[in-house]
Amino acid sequence: MVAPPYPVRIDRPPAHALRSTPHFTSRSIVTEVVRMAEGRDMYMEFFRQADTDGNEFLDIDELVAMMRRKGYKGSDAEIKDMFRRMDTSGDNRVSLDEYLYAMGALPPQAHNWLQSY
């Protein structure tokens, strides 16, 4: 019998079981959650600044204006394409949830759960 090329630990469940458990027992999962939380604050601040009318949604004009203020040099067509990809609900406005999901600061499970309401 050939030994596996990695250490085998029998004192914990297999990796696939860790992903399905509600609590975080894997260091890599915790690291990913911390990374997402740190980036989330930055993205939330951008969203708040861009939402000039305070309705908790971004429209295309707010996104274009904010991207220009932040120094984005691309075309308006490129920004509009970004907007369309972020607007997963198709209502011509981007919610904070949609924005955080597009930026990778909201896991797909949470985004899908929030979309159901």
From TrEMBL:
Residues 38-73, 74-109 form the EF-hand domain. Gene3D superfamilies: EF-hand. Keywords: Calcium. InterPro entries: EF-hand-dom_pair, EF_Hand_1_Ca_BS, EF_hand_dom. The keyword tRNA processing does not apply. GO terms for molecular function: calcium ion binding. Coiled coil: none annotated. This is EF-hand domain-containing protein. It comes from Capitella teleta (Polychaete worm).
